[in-house]
Amino acid sequence: MAVKYLKEVCPIRGVLDRVGDQWSFLVLDMLGGKVMRFNELLRAIGDISRQMLSKTLKRLEEDGFITRTLYPEVPPRVEYALTDLGRSFMEPMQALVVWADTHHQQIRAARRAVQAA
After folding, report:
1. Is residue 8 very low, low, confident or very high in pLDDT (cuts 50, 70, 90)?
2. CA separation for the pair 83, 67 (Å, rounded)
3. How is the chain classified by DSSP, letter by letter?
4. Where would you tag: which of 14, 40, 83, 117 has the fewest CB atoms within 10 A of its CB?
């Protein structure tokens, strides 16, 4: 079945490419269970540029993982939160985080072994 996915346009690949990129995963993790503003996310993630955070938020909103709420105040206030779809992704995402935490030493050892060979 995996060969089929390589030969055809696969909707699963499109979803995994989006949520599996470096920044989307971190943004979703930060928003897990809370509402945050742009600068809060920027500070919480730390090493992401303003431009990349903005792009990532737009893509996650397009895909239905987050909502963007604009409050017509001076200055304008914008808040981001997970949608029901985004919240439903948190369980498998956390399972992947736990798996990575459990196995990261094995993965590092395997990388070192290949690099040494």
Report:
1. low
2. 6
3. -HHHHHHS--HHHHHHHHHTSHHHHHHHHHHTTS-EEHHHHHHHH-S--HHHHHHHHHHHHHTTSEEEEEE--SS-EEEEEE-HHHHHHHHHHHHHHHHHHHHHHHHHHHHHHHHH-
4. 117
